[in-house]
Amino acid sequence: MTKSAMDVVRAARSQEHISDQEIRNQIFEDFFELHGDGLHGDDPAIVGGLATFHDHPVTVITTSRGKSLEERMKKHFGQSEPAGYRKVLRLATNAAKFHRPVILFVDTAGAFPGKSAEENGQGQAIAQNLLKMSQLPTPIISIFYGEGGSGGALGLACGDQVWMLEDSMYTVLSPEGFASILWKDASKTSEAAEVMKLTPKDLLKEKVIEGIIKEPENHEKVIQNIDQVLQEQIPALEKLSTEELLDKRYARFRKF
Amino acid sequence: MKLFQHENTPSQTHIKADKVADDKVPDGLIFNCPKCHTEIFADNLDEYATCPNCDYGFRIAARKRLPWLVDGFTEWDADIEPSNPLNFPNYEQKIAKAKKASKLNESVLTGKATINQTDFALGIMDPTFIMGSLGQMTGEKLSRLFEKATQNKLPVVLFTASGGARMQEGILSLMQMAKVSNAVARHSAAGLLYIVVLTDPTTGGVTASFASEGDITLAEPHALVGFAGRRVIEQTIHEKISADLQSAENVLKHGFIDHIVKRQDEKRTLAWLLKNGGQIND
């Protein structure tokens, strides 16, 4: 049976997904965390660092929602502050220096909408990621494993490829928000979800993403599926010259 | 664990835009400046459309800036217009209305301009065209602006005004943020100058992309400049925020704007910056 768009929304938001911790510890056996944006803060909603992937050094960055209530509050339920986006740029820039691939795992409702986030330049932080990551001479792959909310997700998915787990979504705003604008009625979320083309299948058709990763209930199998995609895609991207890589990256967004 | 599956998670909340903040030039004979509340007589408003007391620049159509801003202007890509990729209901009517109000086919006016014999590529976003929202074709016109400027070795001046991404176009609108940013990056890599002028309002996906990527960032007095909507912020942090959190003056204080320039001084300022701000010393 095919899932409705709203089924996908519910599944994307469910807590049955693999967690950021599982990603860091099971796809990579030796994750070493690197904290901070090097400017003024360390946002716990973004966890990044060095690791090896089949004996190959990589930079791994994940959004992180946290487990306990206290942790979740601190991490703003996985919504990054400017310091989080700047940490991403710092780690990705460092990865480029050593031609290390960057792998980002994204599950966020969006950038955190707070007072201090505004004062510290939330828009500027995301913008600088879009601007500078477009030029980084190393492969950048993003994998969505839940919600991909708006500019806050795009700032973590502006590289060479975007893949989505089957039960993920990627939107310009939440379907609730879309419904309240379209029908002035936030309860018509299901209809909005259909119109928005937010499912991995729709997004693949629109070429917003490169592919869909099967997501069975068994987390080990999900990890294997992600591993397989990365094992295929990283070497393929590494074969390209820097010029080819950056030209393809430009063309990837230019077509929209 | 059910704790976070109620209907008020960050993903599910949505707060409608503040319609009262829609401060276009009012039609009445006497009105109040939305920023300093000074009473203004409509007859006293000149072509700059600024508050005589606080210099706030009212939201005006892109074409209305040209007479006092530039010495010459040749429009580019005038025919590009939006489509309706999601078959969004009533979107065509909205576009038709916007075209009439702005005398534009999309929410940005682009072209080659001249000030004091200096040529540059100019973009002006139009708050009267669906609040300057970033549609697919807005992104197309802006990408072409930067690409043509790169090819012709021209600096770019861009006046931003936008409510953010255009939700009627869904994910394609979001992709424009990256598309235009990539074109800005290539223009910058070619050693060319990019000056942003933030006007009221510059918010959302535009703030989070090309509005925050300039070599020099100017702003008009009291312009609203921010990422998230004020009500969204208030509902998220459960406290009232001051009206000036997202004022150009406060954003400057926090280090994200170089200089606030009133409309009457923009031409002179841009002339100087275009002459001196992008020269490569060999």
Summarize the structure.
In chain A, 45% of the residues lie in helices and 18% in strands.
Structure report:
The complex is a heterodimer of chains A (256) and B (282). Chain A is an alpha/beta fold. Chain A is 45% helix and 18% strand. Chain A has one domain (5-249): 2-enoyl-CoA Hydratase, Chain A, domain 1. Chain A is built from 12 helices and 8 strands. In chain A, strands 1, 2, 3, 4, 5, 6, 7 and 8 form an 8-stranded mixed β-sheet that branches. The two termini of chain A are 31 Å apart. The model of chain A has no long low-confidence stretch (mean pLDDT 95). Chain B has 282 residues and is of the alpha/beta class. Chain B has a single domain, classed as 2-enoyl-CoA Hydratase, Chain A, domain 1 (Alpha-Beta Complex). Chain B is 30% helix and 17% strand. Chain B is built from 8 helices and 9 strands. A 7-stranded mixed β-sheet of chain B has the order 3-4-5-6-7-8-9. In chain B, β4 (108-115) and β5 (118-125) form a beta hairpin. In chain B, α3 (136-151) packs parallel to α4. The chains are: A alpha/beta (256), B alpha/beta (282). The interface between A and B is large, with 61 and 64 residues.
